[in-house]
Amino acid sequence: MTVKRKLLLVSLFVVTFSSSLYMLHSEGYRYNATPSYPIGIYKLDTTQNSQSIAKGKLVLVCPPDTIAFKKPIFKGYVAKGSCPSGYQALIKRWLHSLEWRSH
Q1: How far apart are CA 37 and CA 34, in angstroms?
Q2: pLDDT at position 79, please?
Q3: E strand or H helix at 19, and its extent?
Q4: φ, ψ dihedrals at 97, nearest 5°
Q5: How many CA atoms lie within 13 A of 19 on its CB side?
Q6: Cα–Cα distance, 35 to 91 (Å, whole number)
């Protein structure tokens, strides 16, 4: 196999792999590599009414850009990511059964 052919195959693999990851992400799939929940692939449920979250459901939370998160970032507990604050979303279990009401 020639060098040119090897380069073409590697390029094709990289493009295919990247496209697949983008499609999975756009469909709501997320990979968790943090120790807070088991490592694996999670699917976001966007069909649930955004006005209420059932007790016990897993939720993605974007941490705010505050002093409280500077130390965890520095120590490597929270990674940089795609949240508006620049941090990685955290997976947490919703402990309350609240209905959000707009006044």
Answers
A1: 7
A2: 80
A3: helix 3-26
A4: -105, 90
A5: 6
A6: 10
